[in-house]
Amino acid sequence: MQNPKEYITQNKERFINELIELLKIPSVSADPAFSQDVLNTADAVQKALLQAGCDTVEIFETEGYPIVYGEKIINADLPTVLVYGHYDVQPADPIELWDSPPYEPVIKKTALHPEGAIFARGACDDKGQMYMHVKALEYMTKTDQLPCNVKFMIEGEEEVGSNNLAVFVENNKEKLANDIILISDTGMIANDVPSITTGLRGLSYVEVEVTGPNRDLHSGLYGGAVANPINILTKMIASLHDENNHITIPGFYDKVEDLSAEERAEMAKAPFVLDDYQNALDIDSVYGEEGYSTNERNSIRPTLDVNGIWGGYIGEGAKTVIASKAYAKISMRLVPNQDWKDITELFKTHFESIAPKGVSVKVTPHHGGQGYVTPIDTIGYKAASKAYETTFGKKPIPQRSGGSIPIVALFEKELESKTILMGFGLDSDAIHSPNEHFGVWNYLKGIETIPYFYQFFTDMNK
Ligand code: BES
Ligand code: MN
Ligand code: MN
Fold first, then answer.
1. Residue 102 has pLDDT above 90, yes or no
2. Is 403 a pocket residue for ligand 1 (Cβ < 6 Å)?
């Protein structure tokens, strides 16, 4: 019987070339200019799933971009794995910061990827990681080793909030019934330090608008006599953190789950080199909430960050003006037990309350989602752990991530099953940034590891 490693060695070039073809299609869900490309990507995923051995693959239209759903049911008595991923990508801009065009994939070596990495938008998030599952399925069907049933649900709106997927899941619970959900859309610590993601943060994303005078004013004639919305907005934003970098919104921390000393000690065992971390980012110091380590700050603690801020004159040269309006986009990353809708309300009430006389404030919620933690004493986690141990030769470390995949909490609520997050990317793979890439080694390692998960999960269910 052929093992995955042999099959991968024989098919390596084709596996890489197929992914490269998929990466050439700019499936940017946020920008309507790319809508035909997003639809073409859904078609490409459908073809790939059929080629890999799914019996049926349907394209479900939604009010937004379609969901590609495929399945191969071999025996109703066997367990069912539901694979979720997304075929949409983040916008590539600022495009001038890419060393090679974002939709013309190239393979280049890097310090962390000595065997080469594929550079393209979506290489890691999530086309490359999603496609590992397609190729793992191909291996299992072509070598007659698929041990259980499999369903694939690949969406095209993850990067814009998955609103239509939520509706699809609520309306198709029976179709989507499964024993475990499997997702590769996160990362791991390092290629020689495998880890499994056991938590995701929630999210509340809001936009704020501060309005002062009814028109832009001459900053000499009116300066000093009326509230300047940009001055006021920046002051209000600055007040959202205190001198210890705690968030000052009343009630913000009320439901935050406190980890036990044991859990924090366990977390602190994960390898982390402060100098490497700082050097990789060209910073001379880390920064954050007093009393917590870097790994805690970016995983088990909630945050508030301005993602963009604008207003006034930003063209060439100088224009002496007091703008009528100032704006900012703000994200709050949340931890388990914090409800994103409650937090959005707390933010709105507080932000409105701190506005001084002379301006008015509008807070518009964008989107959000709940956080997620998965227990490690389940069959799903144990099967994943054993799969990594088989292919990496090391037991993976459970690690909570700072990122968000809001639909995961909804899966648990609606489908009543746990999610296993088998991510093979690295934090340095620059997802959402210029020069996103995915290691060829990581891609192939993922394809190799996934079939073992299916095998162990099926065995452990017996
Ligand atoms: N795949 C990422 C999330 C991620 C990346 C989680 C790395 C953990 C490690 C996903 O595509 C993403 O970008 N999510 C967004 C939220 C979404 C609502 C736009 C995020 O985390 O900003
Ligand atoms: Mn993703
Ligand atoms: Mn993303």
1. yes
2. yes
